[in-house]
Amino acid sequence: MKIILLLFLISTIYILVQHFKIVYLLSKHQKFKFDNQDISDPVSVIICAKNEEHNLSKNLKVILNQNYSEFEVVVVDDFSSDSTQEVLQKIQKKYPRLKIIQPKKKSSNSKRNALKTGVLAANYDLVLLTDADCRPLTKRWIQSMSASLSKHKPCVLGYSPYAKHASFLNYIIQYETLQTACLYFSRALANKAYMSVGRNVMYTKTFFLDNENFENENELTSGDDDLLIQNVKDKSQITVNLNTNSFVESQPKRTWTTWWKQKLRHYSTASHYDKHSQIFLGLYHLGHLVFWISFLILISFEFSKLAWTIWFTLVLTKSILMLFYLKLFKVSKVLLIIWPILEASLLLLQLGLGTNGKFKKQKTW
Fold first, then answer.
1. Phi and psi for 240 in degrees, rounded to 5?
2. Taking the CB of residue 224, how many other CB atoms lie within 10 A of it?
3. Residue 186 in contact with residue 269, Cβ under 8 Å?
C-alpha cells in the first residue's frame, strides 16, 4: 500500500507542476502585445465543405461580413451530394469576394486534397482556415489573427471553443476542449508545438507548402492540421493567439454516438505524432489516471485521511487555476464546480476510445 501512496504523491506533484507551467506560459503570452495590430495584408479564408448546405447557410455570411480591408473567402466544395453548390452560388451573388472551387478529382477519404486545392487557388499569401460549422465570435477575427503573424512567426494557432448547451455531454466536450487547448497552446509557447485545430489556424502559403506531406497521408481520414505542425522542424515559427477577438465557435455533437465517432477520428492521428509528443501526452494522461486510481484504492483501505487531505488540496489548487482558464477561454462556469467529475469521466471515456480505436478504422472525414 505504501507503493500506492508513493504513486499517488508523485502523480499529485506531477499534475500540479504541469498546471503551474501551463498557467505561467499562457499568462505570460497573454500580456504580450503584438507589433502588427494595424496589419492589413490581404487574407484568403479557406473553408473545405462536404455536404454542408445547412452550416454554410447559417455561418458563411458571418465570415463574409468581417471587418477587414481586403480578404476573400475560398470555399472548396469537396464533391457534396446535397445542395451545397446551390447555397454557395446564391450567397456569391451578394458577396463577390466569395470564391467557389472544387477539386479536379477525388483522391482520398480525408479533406487533404480539398485543403491543398484551396490553398493553391487562394489569391493571397496569408491563408486562414476554418470549417463550415464554425463562426467567428467577433467581426475582428481576421484582424486579430493577422496581427499575430510576423516574419519570424508565419503560423498562428487560434482557439475554437464549442457552443454551450446544458447537458453532461456538452460539459465533457467543453472540458476536453479546454484541456486540449491548454496543452497545445502551452507546448507551442515552449517551442514544442505538436498540433493545431483546423477550425482556426493561420499561416503563409510558403509555410503550408514547405510542411505539408499530404501525398503520403492519403490513408488517414483526419490529422491534416496536426501532422502539418508535426512536420515543422523549427517550432519557434509557431505562435498562438489568446485574444477573444480571434475565437471561432464551432457546433458540438449532440449525441454520444456522433461524439464517439468524431473522437475516434481525431484520436486516430495521435499514433503518427513524433515520439516526444507521444511521450508527453502519454505521461500527462497516465499521471491523471494514476492519481485517480491510487486515490480510490487509498480511501478504500489504508491512508484514507491522508488521501482525502491530498485530494482536497489538489482540487482546491486546481480550482483556483481553473478560474484563470475560465476567464481566458470563456468556458461555462459550471466547469468550475464539476470539473473533478468531468475529468474522471473523460479519463474513462478516453480509455474506451483508445481501446475501440485499435479495432475500428475510420473511412471518411
1. -130, 160
2. 26
3. no
| Model confidence pLDDT, tens digit, residues 310-322 | 999 999 999 999 9
Calculate the average pLDDT of the chain.
92
C-alpha cell at 294: 491510487
Beta bridge partners of 74: 46, 99
25/151 Cα distance (integer angstroms): 22
Check residue 241 and give its pLDDT.
96
**Domains of the chain and CATH, by start:** 37-161+191-248 (3.90.550.10)
Q: Are strands 126-131 and 43-49 parallel, antiparallel or unpaired?
A: parallel
- DSSP letters along 15-80, please? HHHHHHHHHHHHHHHHT---S-TT----EEEEEEESS-HHHHHHHHHHHHT-S-SSEEEEEEE-S-
Does position 363 have pLDDT exceeding 60, yes or no? Answer: no
* Band of pLDDT at residue 364, cut at 50, 70 and 90: low
**Residue 138 DSSP one-character state:** S
Question: Closest by alpha carbon to 84, among 14, 132, 33, 125?
Answer: 132
Report the range of poorest mean pLDDT among 101-105, 199-203, 239-243, 291-295. 101-105
Q: What is the pTM (predicted TM-score) of this model?
A: 0.92
Cα 73 from Cα 285, distance rounded (Å): 38
Q: CB under 8 Å, gap of 24 or more: what pairs does 252-255 form?
A: 252/162, 252/163, 252/165, 252/169, 252/170, 252/173, 253/169, 253/173, 254/165, 254/167, 254/169, 255/169
Residues in the chain: 365
Structural contact between residues 46 and 118, judged by C-beta atoms closer than 8 angstroms: yes
Q: At 16, is the pLDDT very low, low, confident or very high (cuts 50, 70, 90)?
A: very high
3-state secondary structure of 156: strand
DSSP states of 197-242 as a string? -TTSEEEEHHHHHHH--GGG-TT-SS-HHHHHHHT-S-GGGEEE--
Burial class of 65 by CB neighbour count within 10 A (0 to 12, 13 to 18, 19+): exposed
Q: Picking from 42-56, 155-169, 349-363, which range would have the lowest pLDDT averaged per residue?
A: 349-363
Closest C-alpha to 314, from 5, 6, 11: 11
**What is the rounded distance in angstroms from the CA atom of residue 285 to the CA atom of residue 341?**
16
